[in-house]
Amino acid sequence: MAAPDDVISYFPRDADFATLSEIVEAARAGLPSDVRDFLDGGAGREVTLRRNRQAFERWAYRPRIMTGIGAPDLATSFLGVPLGLPILTAPFGADGLFHPEGHCAVARANAAEGVASIVPEAGTHAVEAVAAAAPVAARIAQIHPMGRPANFAAMLRRIEDAGYGAVCVTVDCPTVGWREGTRHNRFDPDPAVLTGNYPVGGPVALDEVFGQLFTRTEPDWTWAELSERMAATRLPWMAKGVLTAEAASAAVDAGASAVLVSNHGGRQLDGAPAALEQLPEVAAAIAGRAQIALDSGIRSGTDVVTALALGADAVVIGRLAAYGLAAAGEAGVRRIHQLLRDEMHTVLTLLGAGSVRDLGPDFLQKVQP
Ligand SMILES: Cc1cc2nc3c(=O)[nH]c(=O)nc-3n(C[C@H](O)[C@H](O)[C@H](O)COP(=O)(O)O)c2cc1C
């Protein structure tokens, strides 16, 4: 039963991946086992990694039926970036481990599907290279608040000069989380996968910027310093890694235009609550003063809808995008977005929601998992 391309068919009709799980399995099957563990894994005993998934099962939908709504509208905007889908791809570093084109391929896939990239500072390709690969999609660049202020300021200027429209500051990573899996594997990737922005022999050495992450040096940045240093750019910025009302308010007071509710996909502080669990608390504290995104545990279009109903304006996908990249490069990431889009379309239709912007807590009720 063939259908035109713009109609979602119940009957998958080609050899392409028909489900997100097929993409994840293809990616996992093709990666060396230590790279697969690095991608899949979390910190400590992976309690937070598991919580991220369990949290979604504590919410059930309250569908509105016979509403007469037409096709649901999935478009929105975030940090001034127009989005065809309420989705951004996460700044996952070391992307060359999954595919040589890394975030350049992700950005091209995003441009084709109405998704925006958050491009990592610790990536395989420089921010300038990713922007050149897909200027429309590569709109947000991620940066770590650490190291010498002069280096930080120089990186901010590079982000501006490369045409990015916003900055994402990762505030939950003063040092790298205690990752049992990578320790057990003695995982020691080629540093080249991290040095896109700081090539060997360039003006700034990688250790000067990220040394603190790996040597466990005491963190020395505060909200006040971050605020002062971000005042040097005219670009709006988002604080990534907010889990509490206190942190959300501090971020907004420091000048953030958005917060990303995130526990880094369970890769940083094991024992932290699920990001989804914290979303209502953060949304209440923000009270409309900034936009809100959520990551950590998004694995389906249904999950996206739940996060938006709980107060997120958009979601960020980390591992899902990386699996797409590992499975089939640019085409794999595109397929991830297409399947998320089609599933969201179905879920919104069944839920009786006309637009992603109409979603709210009225569409949900708490249940025992
Ligand atoms: C392989 C990998 C590398 C990552 N590198 C970074 C990074 O350099 N900076 C950062 O802020 N977050 C990093 N993250 C975290 C993601 O940006 C994001 O918060 C997380 O993947 C979201 O959870 P999810 O994977 O369940 O979607 C990384 C995640 C993965 C899986």
Automatic annotation (TrEMBL):
Q: Where does this protein have coiled-coil stretches?
A: none
Q: Name one GO molecular function term.
A: oxidoreductase activity
> What are its cofactors?
FMN
Keyword Transit peptide among UniProt keywords = no
Organism of origin is Pseudonocardia yunnanensis
User: What top-level branch of life does the organism fall under?
Assistant: Bacteria
Q: What is this protein called?
A: Alpha-hydroxy acid oxidase
Q: Which UniProt keywords apply?
A: Flavoprotein, FMN, Oxidoreductase
